[in-house]
């Protein structure tokens, strides 16, 4: 169980202007699920991940992971977590094998050479184990980051935009690995601004806007909350307008009443939920 | 066999990267070029007819160049790589998120800096042996060299942790390291300098390295300088560890 209680984090810029990255946020994430933090850039997703992975200290509030306080027992927390950061922090001048081996030593992984081999095979990089990371494509580097995070078999995996910039095929490969991680009994906390990624992976979703948590629920419940069906209307001037309805019949009735415009009825998605709740685009 | 000491992975990583740099000829050249220029300009040029404390200038200069080179390389490598790893490459964050103590990170970084400082010193020592028959390495020389590398690697960690951009590390170097290199007795004895200048110069740790590293036998002045170096080293190591422990983005 991850518990965040009344956490606030403020950053000060050079001109002393302050930005509240996380604003009095409280959240409980149960064990063994994939939890998604959904929000646009600057919503505070990465700051929450940095706080939970001991990289950043909040100004107010506290966090616990599996009952351990993040500030009084950081080593216990660090033994339990694996992190895929948003920014690639692999050693580019070292090989894939060396990157994982050093990480395994840092996390005191037993039977390390075998585990490194297993991890590289899991992400299809065993054939490239001796290649220097700077020669890898972006997709290969993201896969290696995931393999590195999972090497110590952490009980909680934090993935900060793990598939950013990847092509659809590689993204789906990453999703399969993340799903397997959940099946193995781990908790996964993932930040994303890809709607389809959140829908495909997450059991629970927290919607963030300007550092505040504005909704937490399952994807289905969130969609039910705002309406199951969306009517997309493109008017004569080409502008898109949307209207959300509780059921298909209401949506159909509304669409039938419209003239001189192009109308599409579709099921609602998390982007519709996000726009409805926050008034922002993701 | 896996070494289980917590600092070992940090040291190993730095050494793997160092090994790759060593294989490039440019690195060895850049580590040697400044001290060799000083040796040629001051030792063989300017100092040809100068005698200091009854011996030739080259014998005086070489231990000073070893001290200066070990300071430069221990400090610069740690400060520069730590700063880059923290701000640009974000690889330092891997250490912070690992289940190890801040002191282990500090030890790993300092040992890596010491290795680089000792390597650069070795190159100067080889040149010293080839150019002066009076140049000798004593156990005291080695002990002072090790303390000097430890001290300036620790200072490098502090600089690497507190600088806000990579350009800042050069600023710190310009204000502290370069003046120390020239005014701490590397190129000329400081005993004839005016009193008020000496007071400032005796605050520089490199001054005490230069005093102790030139002693053939330990005496009161040597012991005092070593104690001062150890105090500086302990203070820098403690403060560097605290900075790592308090790290927050």
Q: Could you please describe the fold and organization of this structure?
A:
The complex is a heterodimer of chains A (282) and B (249). Chain A has 282 residues and is an alpha/beta fold. Chain A has 2 domains: 2-217, P-loop containing nucleotide triphosphate hydrolases (Rossmann fold), CATH 3.40.50.300; 228-278, no CATH class. Chain A has helices at 45-52, 74-80, 96-106, 112-122, 138-150, 168-183, 195-201, 219-226, 248-256, 270-278; strands at residues 2-12, 18-29, 34-38, 60-65, 68-69, 81-84, 156-160, 187-192, 204-209, 212-217, 229-234, 240-245, 262-267. In chain A, the strands form 3 sheets. A 6-stranded mixed sheet of chain A has the order 6-7-8-3-9-10, sandwiched between helices. In chain A, strands 2-1-4-5 form a 4-stranded antiparallel sheet, covered by helices on one side. A 3-stranded antiparallel sheet of chain A has the order 12-11-13. Chain A is globular and about 70 Å long. Chain B has 249 residues and is mainly alpha-helical. Chain B has one domain. Chain B is built from 10 helices and 2 strands. In chain B, helix 9 packs across helix 10 (220-245). The longest helix of chain B is centred in the N-terminal third of the chain and has 31 residues, at 57-87. The two termini of chain B are 36 Å apart. The model of chain B has no long low-confidence stretch (mean pLDDT 89). The interface between A and B is medium-sized, with 29 and 26 residues.
């Amino acid at each position: 169980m991850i518990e965040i209680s009344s956490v606030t984090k403020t950053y000060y810029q050079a001109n002393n202007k302050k930005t509240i990255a996380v604003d009095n946020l409280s959240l409980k994430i149960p064990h063994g699920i994939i939890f998604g933090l959904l929000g646009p850039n600057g919503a505070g997703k990465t700051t929450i991940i940095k706080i939970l992975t001991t990289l950043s200290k909040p100004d107010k509030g506290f966090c616990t992971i599996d009952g351990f306080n993040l500030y009084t027992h950081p080593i216990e927390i660090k033994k339990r977590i694996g992190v895929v950061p948003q920014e690639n922090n692999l050693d580019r001048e070292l090989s894939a094998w060396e990157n994982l081996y050093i990480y395994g030593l840092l996390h005191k992984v037993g039977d390390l050479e075998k585990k490194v081999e297993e991890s590289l095979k899991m992400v299809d990089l065993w054939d490239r184990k001796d290649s220097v990371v700077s020669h890898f494509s972006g997709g290969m580097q993201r896969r290696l980051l995931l393999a590195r995070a999972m090497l110590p078999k952490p009980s909680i995996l934090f993935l900060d935009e793990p598939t950013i910039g990847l092509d659809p095929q590689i993204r789906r490969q990453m999703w399969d690995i993340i799903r397997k991680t959940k099946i193995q009994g781990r908790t996964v906390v993932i930040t994303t601004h890809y709607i389809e990624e959140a829908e495909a992976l997450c059991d629970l979703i927290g919607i963030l806007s300007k550092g505040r948590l504005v909704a937490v629920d399952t994807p289905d419940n969130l969609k039910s909350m705002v309406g199951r069906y969306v009517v997309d209307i493109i008017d004569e001037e080409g502008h898109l307008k949307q209207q959300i309805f509780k059921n298909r019949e209401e949506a159909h009735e509304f669409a039938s009443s419209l003239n001189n415009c192009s109308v599409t009825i579709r099921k609602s998605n998390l982007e519709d939920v996000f726009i409805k709740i926050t008034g922002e685009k993701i | 066999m896996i070494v289980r000491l917590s600092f070992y992975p940090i040291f190993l990583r730095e050494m793997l990267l160092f090994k790759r740099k060593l294989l490039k000829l440019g690195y060895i050249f850049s580590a040697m070029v400044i001290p060799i220029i000083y040796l040629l300009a001051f030792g063989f040029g300017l100092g040809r007819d100068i005698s200091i404390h009854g011996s030739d200038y080259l014998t005086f200069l070489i231990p000073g160049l070893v001290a200066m080179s070990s300071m430069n390389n221990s400090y610069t490598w740690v400060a520069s790589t730590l700063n880059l790893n923290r701000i640009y490459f974000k690889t330092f964050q891997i250490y912070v998120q690992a289940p190890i103590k801040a002191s282990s990170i500090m030890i790993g970084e300092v040992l890596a800096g010491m290795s680089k400082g000792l390597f650069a010193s070795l190159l100067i020592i080889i040149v010293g042996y080839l150019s002066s028959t009076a140049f000798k390495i004593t156990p005291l020389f080695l002990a002072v060299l090790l303390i000097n590398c430890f001290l300036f690697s620790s200072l490098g960690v502090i600089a690497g942790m507190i600088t806000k951009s990579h350009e800042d590390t050069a600023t710190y170097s310009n204000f502290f390291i370069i003046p120390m290199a020239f005014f701490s007795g590397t190129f000329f004895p400081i005993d004839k300098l005016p009193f008020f200048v000496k007071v400032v110069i005796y605050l520089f740790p490199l001054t005490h390295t230069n005093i102790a590293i030139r002693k053939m036998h330990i005496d009161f002045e040597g012991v005092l300088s070593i104690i001062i170096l150890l105090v500086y080293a302990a203070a820098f190591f403690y403060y560097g560890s605290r900075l790592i422990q308090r790290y927050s983005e």
